[in-house]
Protein 1
Amino acid sequence: MRNSTLLVILTVLGFSSALQAAPPAATPEEMAEAQRWAGRFTGAGQFEGAEPGFSFFYGGKPSADLLPGWTFERTSRQLDPQRTEYILSYEAPESRLQVRWVAVTYSDFPVVEWTAYLKNNGTENTPLIEGLQGLDVSFPCDGSDGYVLRGNKGDHNVADSYAPYEITLWPNTQYTFAPNGGRPCDTAFPYFNLSMRGGTGMILAVGWTGQWAATFAHRADRGLQITAGQELTRLYLEPGEEIRTPLIALMLWGGDDIVRSQNLWRRWMLAHNLPHPGGQPLRPLLTFCDYGFYGWAKNTEEGEKCFIDELTRQGIQLDYWWVDAGWFPGGQGEWVVAKDRFPHGLKAISDYVHERNMGLIVWFEPESAYPWSITAKSNPQAMLKSMPPEAYGLELLYLGDRQAREWITNRIDSIIREEGIDFYRQDMNLGPLSYWRGSDLPDRLGIHENLHVQGYLAMWDELLRRHPGMPIDSCAGGGRRNDIETLRRAIPLLRSDYQHFQGHPQWAIGNQGHTYGIASWIPYFGEGVYYNPQQTVYSVRSYMTPALGLVCDVRSPDVDWDLYRRMIAQWRQVADCYLGDYYPLTPYSLDEKCWLAWQFDRPEQGDGMVQAFRRKETVADSFQLRLQGLEPERTCAVTDLDTLSTVESSGRELMDRGISITLADRPGSALLRYQRNPGDAG
């Protein structure tokens, strides 16, 4: 039994009291600063010459010395009402190496982004290209004692995945960030927020679905230099060959409100980056997967329908039915339906769920394959081996090979069409770096990675061209492939594989921490909730996300269907709020002695939600929270979704005086929904 009380308090308590900002919107000053940066790099506006924001060495000489002497051309065009594209093209007169720097500016956000492309237009191999950096910018020495760098850890399927960090870049210090094994969010996270002197800051994203590296070096006599790019490049280009840098995105912000800057970033991500299937923003999704209850390659048509039928009988309406790994015979690379278990194909499942107003999600892992598989036998020239060998003998399908990429794209496309699949789920459980580098020659270091990353994005672009509006799920052993290039094409239905098939509450705290961290950067993400009789309301709420995946053995007589239905109903009441502005209401902690809470607010819709967690070793049964981002003179009705008790208070009182959450249970949780009164704005 859980008891909760919600009260308006009269004392000024809570976390981050200064962070009571109005809904984030770019200021004229921020837009002007972004334009200045764009002009610096493109040569537009007040700047006569361009200062490229990238760098490399060519034949041992720095690009900064070479580019002014190369043939140069500048073009621009309007992509849409909000975006303008600039292309700066340079070509070496003798070797005919072409460098195209493609930048985009935004009229509604203080953002400039770019990618550099290097192509050999000559008839012979180019000299060596080394140290290719997609970002190379510096800030002059300004007497600052230190810049402050904020970010988050990447995912590694552990409790502190996405844990926030804050580093002061003191003079004569240097920090380098890079992931493990070639998946861009494996332990490191390619998103940074840099605070600078004078109340200004810059958010940086490195869009590279491979092994990136970013370095922040503060030299007392030279200021701050930031570089970011593919971690290792030392290669020549063959005639006609082209490589690229990561996508670099910079958002300029002013003031000292870090939370506001992150919400401005979230809004840009929602408006211009995350997929819009059918031209519409993504809505929260409820899914169900029976993986883990049949085991690998043991699910059947009969078994899938058994689970679907029981959920239907229990009155649970899903958005998607999820068929995970194992629908094929054998292992990865055998991309055909196992007819002994699915005699009518997956089409029987898709028809079954479509009749029940659901879509079908199906799992693939096209880049990994066993040597005996259809994939490997059909593409022997494109199979890379790991150095040292992978434990299970898996090989990597090299997507830099056009023939192989077209083959796997066609294979996936035919399965999607024939089986009636609505949602394509792509996983990647291999760390590809050892395959790429093990295949490189000494004077071609980085070429396999670069061409594979290009092929990976091209494959998704082609699938989306053939299936307009089809959602794609980005998974890589959890959340290890969520760079900005990927997120422009896909969403992460599993932000991490930090889960347990038994759904024990001990996993709850880690998942609370995951939401706390990832929400600052990625507005749309999902997680799976594994259920058993030990599961509690506290546990389920710890996993609540914009895309909620249910996992439960419906055949068990111990399932508490009333709890299931109640949790789903509560999630539906608040799910849309996850796509609003995000406010941490407590410091981050995984300590059992600490409370944790956050708020999601939708100022345009006039509503929001609060989640609070009392962990099992906390002493106090009450905690005070001040809400953020509200209109001071507008009344809010705040409802506890467990007790259905409601209190009304002004936005000013809720922000300045706050609310108190009382929970008798340890562990326990509160879920509050609030609505602004539309008629009393001051």
Protein 2
Amino acid sequence: MAGEELEGRWRTDGKFFRAGTRRVRMCAVTYGPFPGGWPASFEPDFARITAAGFNSIRLYEMPDLRLLNAAAAHGLNVFGGLKWAQSADFFRAPGLYSSAVISLTHALRDFHAHPALAGVYVGNEVPADLARWMGPLKVRRAIEGLIDTGRELAPGLLFAYANYPSTEYLEPENADFTAFNVYLEDEAAFRRYVKRLHHIAGDRPLVIAEFGLDSRRNGLARQAETLAWATRAALELETAGMTIYSWSDRWWNAGAEVLDWDFGLTDRAGNSKPALADLNPLPRISDSVHFSVIVCTRNGIDRIGRCLDAVGHLTGGDFETLVVDDGSTDGTADLVKKNFPWVRLIRLQAGGLSRARNAGAAAAHGEVLAFTDDDCEPDREWIERLRPVFASGRFAAAGGPNLPPGARTWEEAVVRAAPGAPSHVLIDDEEAEHLPGCNLAVTRLAFHAIGGFDRRFHTAGDDVDFCWRLRDAGYRLGFAPGGFVWHWRRPTIREFLRQQLGYGRAEHLLLEKHPARFSKRGDAKWEGFIYGGGPVRVMADSIIYHGPTGDAGYQAITNRMLPLRRLDKRFDTWTSQLALAVVKFLQPRLRGWARNRRLSYRPECLRKAQNAGPYEEFAIDSPEGYDREHFLKLLIRHGYRPAGDTDPWDLKLASTRVQLATERGDGLAKRTLVRVWGTADVAGILQPRATRQAEA
């Protein structure tokens, strides 16, 4: 870990954060809540936190002025946490949600301009059973509403929701970064899951918002070992930050001091544990492999300058740059020769994109050939992020996301949010089926083994054919979520639709060459999932894997919707929304016409869970602290069995179905909510001696 000085507000920068001109990584530790409230002085703790290499602290409540001033004095960024009754059915008691909005408003009104306040978590782990009870889409929209409120009041802050694996589907569409609390004590399992989270995050930075290990149950040595490998893995896996849970063993939760957990880096007396000294930075990846960056252009005089400026600032070791000019008539070659003398320029007669890429590969000296386009700007760490994929020895090609820069006009905003952009296709969380040609690196050996790009593809489709042939030859394609390029989309709707026609014509060539990879309707049959840039999130017709009783720790959305980017709020008007709706209607039909000479478009047929209205609803007040698990076991003893993985209910017996959720709050008392489909006397089983109150 490396501490970093507070230098201006943090901003998102593709898959990472930036402060001013510097890329920064969130190195955070959770702080509080403590029995008895905040300490009399923050100085001793904050000095030790900074000395340990942390640059941020995460709170579970909004900070006061005293804490913020102390954090600023030590160069610490503060990520506040909105404290509200999120573990109750806040739709039945709207005042709970209203109080959250009021609390957020008051806190930001007072402190939004404070230099130490970097961001706010508007919620933390809405329980999975309550999310299902209230409706996942409604809950997600409530979280998004809090983020919108916060951003209106404090546009300079970062906003997120601290999610956890059981509710992946709640990921808010409008968060600045994706944050997950992950407690996987096995390194291999942790690494696999972080790779999955990158794809849930889409274009956004990924932050591990909590990770820790209880030293009381596991011992001090294992805690130190586990936090060390987790910190190292989070860095290697290109997260934008990591938050260790927690600074101290002293912890206050649910109205009482927690005495049977010891997650802290310091004990209850304030003494350092071995884990605090063992949080080491990631060793630098070897830069011995020589890269050749190849940029093909045709009449790109308005674009090539930005591209080469970005290439000139690449880090990550030795590389050369080649520009292949495919018969430009606008002076592109002369501009490159004059302004970028360090670039090797190759001039060709116009012959198409594939021919140009092959010419660049033939002239290149590097062991790895890295292709991008003249309308792209590689992130400065692009090569650095691709290297580990090749260093693993498992992959012959690699690439990462292509992200659109912020829209400058309403038309650019519409195009940015429209389907049909070049996207990667992933078989799993680390292996790709397809990588767009604007962000595609391949070993020289594999490139020549399959004969390079097919010259029949002049403007598009060459990368799809190339990746399919790589896979057919037995090569594997890796994915680097942090190795992104900024890719400018078409500036007008007219040009975008013309591009989609070109993509359709390219798909026609692909269909002729690879008929087995297309359906009878002419649609490409991908093994993997197409990623469109937005976060993977629940929609109105999503089906969620619940596990046998709705408590699966790691859940998924079964319809795997294409996660598109949202319409930029600066241009979110009724005219832009109408234009986007028209574009979404036309795009697949124009593309299908160019591909199949017919309007072959078939809307997705989504399976919906049967969820008729419940026969009755009631609540059980449980002073003994009984929760959902207790009542599930009670029903099972009476013959009820777990329902199917995608059913809205938890248990069933004959024609009767039951769903349960437990509201949580301070203290031991809990309130369990019950829905019943059918006529069986479920209430008599669950509370035979209590008075049942039916609810509307």
